[in-house]
Amino acid sequence: MRSQWNASSGKSDPSCYRVTSEAQPAVSDQGVLKKTRLYGGHFDADTKLVLHSFGSPTGDIAAGLAISPDKSGPVEDAVALAPLCDSGLALMVADGVGGLPTGWKASGITLEAVCAALKNAKNDDALLRNAILDGIDNANRALRELGTGTSTTLVVAEIRDQQVRTFHIGDSSAWLCGQRGLVKLQTTPHSPLGFALQAGFVDEKEALHHEDLNLISNVVGSADMRIEIGSRVPLAPKDTLLIASDGLFDNVLESEIVEIIRTGSVADNLRELWELTAKRMAGAHKGKPSKPDDFSAILLRPAANGTPNSG
Fold it and tell me: Exposed site from 101, 170, 202, 273, fewest CB < 10 Å?
């Protein structure tokens, strides 16, 4: 599958965000990731799903994007994979807020802005951090200048020197899971239920069936946007990093996600995540959460020796 999203154009023309492909249920091996890849926006009529895998010096990567089963318009989620100049990597997921004008454009503009800011960033911790923050600020300003109220969530994972640092706004999240299932990192969604779950006022099952599940309290495109920056967390060779939108987390339980991603190839992990999510969205599992939505997820399994795999 091939994206025609021009990551360096800086344009907001819908044609820049078009994904075309032949229907293919399997994960498509794209070889070594050598340049920035962005996916989002308009799908062809016969295209509902993009599942790609890549190799890189940082590790094996799998990225997926799917349109909600209950709509035919543009996909409001977007994903980006950006190699950094020092063999590092930036992974991004954005989820345009549903029900607002051109949510798909908000996610696209935001990822494009962050990728542009990172394009010439040097191998320096402070400079990379500032480049990501500048990109987010640029995106926030651009969305506000549109004057349409459009907005998006965002999660960025910057991976370098066997460590990961996260930046997030809204309820798209980043998780880090060990091979034995220990969750080493889990960002808190910026939403009333996200904070309630963290504080122990509700449990996971109550949250997934709550009437306020769709509410979020922090977005790119807002005058009071705030960016939560995580500390650097070590990456072990058999860890799995996951970043995804609520299309995954609102349909699949934490224990189920961990069991799928902790072992096996990231390509197989991604396919299993999507298959389970799709069944839940279709209401196939009675008593389980079921919320039709766009789906976006990226998985990374760190390289043991820094040698790029085929994907």
Answer: 101
Could you tell me if 170 and 216 are in contact, meaning their C-beta atoms sit under 8 angstroms apart? Answer: yes
Q: Residue 266 and residue 241: Cα distance in Å, rounded?
A: 10
- Is the distance from CB of 81 to CB of 125 less than 8 angstroms? no
Report residue 22's pLDDT band, with 50, 70 and 90 as the boundaries. Answer: very low
What is the Rg, in whole angstroms, of the alpha carbon atoms belonging to the chain?
18
Identity of the amino acid at 221: G
Tokens of 140: 């926030």
DSSP codes, 148-198? S---EEEEEEEEETTEEEEEEESS-EEEEE-TTS-EEEEPPPSSHHHHHHH
For residue 4, pLDDT over 90 is answered with no
Domains of the chain plus CATH, in order, are: 15-286+293-302 (3.60.40.10)
- Tell me the whole-structure pTM to 2 decimals: 0.86
pLDDT recorded at residue 201: 65
Number of C-alpha atoms within 13 angstroms, CB side, residue 250? Answer: 26
